[in-house]
Structures are given as structure tokens and as C-alpha cells.
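Figure 3 (text version): C-alpha cells given as input.
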């Protein structure tokens, strides 16, 4: 059994940063309601999850904005954490599920499943375990497809560089042969020297991923390898993304141990709150034993199986109303009644004790009176064109594995359509299609389209994707089925000083929205599906207690790191 640490409530204090002035820092210490709520304490988590009536002042009514994975998860959890609360889940579009969308195409030779959003999940992070727990609650275990760690999808990932696919090493032995690859040129020397480089000055709070890693590993590793990985998660430009937000452990390791490598080789540590949640949810999730050896997973019916199950569950709850096609136009805080009016929602019952916004940070800020939480407006998002293609011949790609990514260092002649990468879906998630053949997805755009006033049409996108596959993989055949989706502003970009902006937003929201507006979703602490599930769960957990919060507390208090058990 894992022993939990004593709650370190005494350590919770605001951290200085470039956005929060000394005056507001002092102001903070006069807000005892915030300080009496120890975010990171074991007692706190236990009290709400195990003794629902303890230390709680449950809200009567809560509105949740946005019925994507975050909003659905927030509603699902709030319904359990606080059964006495009336929950209204509002969604602007006609369907729930948000970016998660699995579409089935019926063909004479069987059905094909196309994903236009996230398509696989990793089980073994703390947020991954929380998602598994949710799946278990929803009784979806029999619907899961597990991809083992020994499969080509888990072992083989490629980077397109110097006109060829370079297979990234998946083990120490393959690392030696990988040293001969073009993409590894100039990488080894700087990597070996990293432990001996000087650490950054103590007053540097953040910088770009590119600047951080160029300092530590030199430009080749950064531009040829790391930029590709950041294309494959954020579709973003490492020159703009925040090292502190997106490489938090490594950035801290440089500060604490003087080196990324030395930190990784030393005592492994994690944030106390994550460790507590990991142990709590591991104990409660039975299926962890049966999915041992799993690298990634999805569902037979695609990722939308999860959001559909959440939707179906919520619609039969007495205290939950799901309303689609409702566009929220504004949020106004009433200081006297301590409630938030949700504009755009018809009828007299449009004031709520709490609102959880699972909309993007920028969209949420735009609903507030000007000047309420303006730093949230600074988090931009990128647009990605997702092109799914199905070919009748099996093994059409000529390589087996998860897929390949294209680094920013690849010259435009070798990547004229600004593709970010290609997923080999038939390998990455086998067993979702009835029809025999090869399924791939080409992802285009992302930060490369930052300054564009308009985007390619679906026809243009399809043509571009086919040309990418021809140029990189030599595929000249026509696909038998295709689907193109332009995902506008789908991935938020955590720019340099992301944490500082969130700290400022927290201050502003506590002052101007009374701690009644709680933020959740992919604009803050992680863009992945697992991160959204965690974020929805955390927001529900906080609101269930009825204490003024913003959901951004994590950026305000100094973290407590503890050694992993
Ligand atoms: C080519 C572009 C993209 C590919 N996937 C995404 C983009 C923009 C989106 C994406 N991928 C990951 C996440 C976060 C976590 C999640 O919900 O699963 C997001 C938003 C996961 C991910 N994909 C790759 C890596 C290294 C990671 C991080 C964690 C993990 O190892 O799973 C690599 C990768 N992504 C794409 C390809 C083709 C590829 C590697 C060959 C597509």
C-alpha cells in the first residue's frame, strides 16, 4: 500500500511573478477564504470524495458551459460529488462531444471509422488513470481496444527528415543504430555535454521551448527532433511555446539539479497533489491489472464512445439538464446575490451559484465585462486540417508504426503543404474497420497557418494530403474513402509566461467574479484528452465544496514536489 504524505498546507503560498504585483500579493494574504482551502492536501481530497457531507457547502445550482469532454466530465463528476446540486450543461452546437468525433462510413465492403479529433489515449499517467476510472464507472471496458507496448504502433515512430523516414529509437540497443540516421546528425555531442552546461540564472521564470533546449542540447536536437514532437502534440512552434508550461519537469530539473539529464537520473519526484490522486485512483480502478502492458487504447466505436456514454448517463440524471444549441453571450456577476447570470439562456432561471466554463480561455474572457480577465485573451489557438484517407490495399504505407512527424527544419520544398505529420491509423489502432485496407490521417497547418486570413477548402485539403503522401511515401493510388475536417482553433498554444498570465487571471476572477466562475479545459493545464478529463474532474470537485475558486489555484501556490514511491 502506498503511504500518503502529510498535507503540506503550510507550504501553500503565492509565488512572485512578472504579472502579479507586490501590492496584489499582499492583498492575497488578506483572503483567508482561499487559504483555508488546501488544494494539495490529502485530507481535502479524502473529505470530499469519501465523506461527501464533510466540510461542504454544496451549491444549489451550477451551469457548465461547453459539452466537450471537459464539460461532460465536469457534469458527470459534479453529479456524483454533489447529488443535491442542480446542473445545467450548455452547448452551443447541436451535438455534445466537442473535438471528439468518430464518424462511420458505410461501404459495400464493410464499415470504416474516421476520427477527426483525438483517437488514442495513454493509460499510465496520473490523468490517464483518472480517465480509466471514468471508463470503468461508465462500464465501457468491453468496448476498449488495447494496443500492446510490444506492437509496431508502440515501438515505431518516425521523423521525416532528409527526404526519408527516420525511425526513432524505442530501446537502448536501437538507440545506438539510430545514431547513424540523418536526423541524429550533430545531436550526440551536445546531448553528452548537457549535464555540464551552466544552469539558467535564478531570475528567469520562463522562456520558449526552443531557447531552453537550444541552451541545453544545441540547435540540431531542438529543431530536428523536438520541434517534430511539438508538432505532434500542439501543432505548435517551439519558438513561441513556453518551456515552463510544457516541459515543466525538465525546466524544474535545470533549476533544481542544474541539468535535465542529471535530474532525470536522480531521485524521481512528482507534484504531491498528483501523487495523492495517482494512489487514490489506482486503488479504485480495478482494470489497471487487466490492461498491464498496454501502450495506448481507444474503443471499437472510436473515441466518441466515451463522450456518448457520458452524454447518455447525464440525460437520465434527475438533477442534470443538457441543453444543446444554446449560445452563451455573456456572464455577469452579481456581488449581492453572489451568483452569475448566464446571458443567452432563455427563461428566468439563468442565474447560478457557480459557473464552470469548459470553453476556451479566450472565449470565456470574451463573455466577461472588458477588463475582467484579459490575460486569458492572450492564449491563441491553432487551426489544423485533418484529412482521413482509406486505401483498399493493405500495408500501403510501406512502414509499420504509429506514424511520422515533420520537424520545422525540413525545407519547404520537401514539405510544401506544411504538413505536421501522418498517422498510420491501421497500425496505430487496429480493429476499428470492417473493410480490409490501409487507413492514414494527414495533419496540415497548425502554427504554419498562424497568419493566414483564410484556410484551404476541403477539396484543396484533400489534394494537399494526397500530394504529401505521394512525396513522402510514394503513394500514388486513389483512396476509396476520405474525410476532411478543418478544426478551427482546436489546440491552445501555451506561450511564454503562460503561468504568469493564469496567475493574473486567477487574481482578477477572484476579485471580479467572486470565485464563482471556475475554469476548466484544454486552455490551462494540458491539451490532451486525459488532461481534459482531469480538469473537468478537478473543477467538479472544487465546486462541489461550494468554496470560491477559479480552477487556476495550481498556478498561484508553490508546488510541493515529493519523491515517487
Ligand atoms: C501531426 C500532428 C498531430 C498528431 N497528434 C496531434 C497532432 C497535432 C495531437 C495530439 N497528440 C497527442 C496529444 C496529447 C495527448 C493526447 O490526448 O493523447 C495531442 C493533442 C499525443 C502525442 N502524439 C505524439 C506524441 C509524442 C504525443 C505525446 C504523448 C504520447 O507519446 O502519446 C506523436 C505523434 N502525434 C502525431 C503523430 C503522427 C505522432 C508520431 C509519430 C499526430
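Below: residues designed for each position.
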Amino acid at each position: 500500500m502506498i503511504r500518503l504524505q502529510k498535507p503540506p498546507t503550510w507550504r501553500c503560498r503565492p509565488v512572485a511573478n512578472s504579472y502579479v504585483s507586490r501590492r496584489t500579493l499582499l492583498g492575497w494574504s488578506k483572503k483567508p477564504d482561499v487559504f483555508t482551502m488546501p488544494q494539495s492536501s490529502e485530507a481535502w481530497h479524502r473529505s470530499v470524495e469519501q465523506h461527501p457531507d464533510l466540510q461542504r457547502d454544496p451549491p444549489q445550482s451550477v451551469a457548465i458551459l461547453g459539452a466537450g469532454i471537459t464539460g461532460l466530465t465536469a457534469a458527470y463528476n459534479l453529479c456524483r460529488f454533489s447529488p443535491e446540486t442542480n446542473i445545467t450543461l450548455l452547448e452551443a452546437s447541436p451535438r455534445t462531444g466537442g473535438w471528439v468525433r468518430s464518424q462511420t462510413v458505410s461501404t459495400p465492403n464493410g464499415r470504416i471509422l474516421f476520427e477527426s479529433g483525438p483517437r488514442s489515449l495513454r493509460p499510465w499517467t496520473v490523468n490517464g488513470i483518472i480517465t480509466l476510472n471514468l471508463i470503468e464507472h461508465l462500464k465501457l471496458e468491453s468496448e476498449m481496444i488495447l494496443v500492446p507496448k510490444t506492437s509496431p504502433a508502440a515501438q515505431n515512430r518516425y521523423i521525416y527528415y532528409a527526404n526519408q523516414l527516420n525511425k526513432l529509437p524505442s530501446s537502448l540497443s536501437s538507440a545506438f543504430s539510430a545514431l547513424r540516421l540523418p536526423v541524429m546528425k550533430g545531436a550526440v555531442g551536445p546531448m553528452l555535454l548537457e549535464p555540464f552546461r551552466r544552469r539558467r540564472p535564478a531570475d528567469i521564470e520562463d522562456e520558449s521551448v526552443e531557447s531552453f533546449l537550444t541552451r541545453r542540447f544545441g540547435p540540431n536536437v531542438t529543431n530536428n527532433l523536438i520541434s517534430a514532437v511539438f508538432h505532434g502534440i500542439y501543432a505548435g512552434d517551439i519558438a513561441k511555446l513556453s518551456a515552463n508550461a510544457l516541459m515543466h519537469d525538465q525546466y524544474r530539473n535545470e533549476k533544481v539539479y542544474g541539468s535535465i539529464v542529471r535530474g532525470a537520473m536522480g531521485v524521481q519526484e512528482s507534484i504531491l497533489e498528483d501523487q495523492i490522486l495517482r494512489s487514490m485512483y489506482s486503488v479504485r480502478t480495478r482494470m489497471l491489472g487487466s490492461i498491464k502492458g498496454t501502450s495506448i487504447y481507444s474503443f471499437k466505436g472510436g473515441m466518441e464512445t466515451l463522450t456518448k456514454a457520458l452524454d447518455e448517463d447525464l440525460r437520465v440524471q434527475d438533477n442534470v439538464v443538457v441543453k444543446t444549441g444554446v449560445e452563451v453571450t455573456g456572464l455577469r456577476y452579481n456581488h449581492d446575490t453572489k451568483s452569475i447570470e448566464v446571458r443567452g439562456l432563455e427563461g428566468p432561471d439563468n442565474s447560478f451559484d457557480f459557473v464552470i466554463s469548459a470553453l476556451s480561455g479566450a472565449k470565456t474572457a470574451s463573455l466577461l465585462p472588458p477588463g475582467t480577465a484579459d490575460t486569458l485573451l492572450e492564449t491563441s489557438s491553432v487551426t489544423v486540417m485533418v484529412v482521413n484517407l482509406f486505401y483498399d490495399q493493405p500495408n500501403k504505407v510501406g512502414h509499420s508504426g504509429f506514424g511520422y512527424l515533420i520537424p520545422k527544419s525540413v525545407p519547404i520544398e520537401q514539405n510544401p503543404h506544411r504538413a505536421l505529420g501522418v498517422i498510420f491509423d491501421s497500425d496505430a489502432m487496429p480493429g476499428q474497420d470492417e473493410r480490409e485496407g490501409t487507413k492514414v490521417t494527414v495533419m496540415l497547418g497548425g502554427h504554419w497557418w498562424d497568419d493566414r486570413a483564410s484556410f484551404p477548402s476541403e477539396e484543396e485539403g484533400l489534394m494537399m494530403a494526397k500530394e504529401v503522401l505521394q512525396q513522402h511515401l510514394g503513394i500514388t493510388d486513389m483512396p476509396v474513402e476520405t474525410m476532411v475536417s478543418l478544426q478551427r482553433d482546436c489546440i491552445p498554444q501555451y506561450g511564454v509566461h503562460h503561468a504568469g498570465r493564469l496567475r493574473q487571471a486567477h487574481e482578477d476572477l477572484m476579485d471580479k467574479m467572486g470565485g464563482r466562475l471556475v475554469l476548466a479545459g484544454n486552455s490551462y493545464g494540458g491539451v490532451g484528452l486525459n488532461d481534459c478529463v482531469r480538469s473537468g474532474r478537478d473543477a467538479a470537485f472544487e465546486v462541489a465544496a461550494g468554496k470560491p475558486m477559479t480552477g487556476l489555484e495550481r498556478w498561484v501556490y508553490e508546488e510541493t514536489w515529493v519523491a515517487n514511491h
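The chain is about 35% helix and 20% strand.
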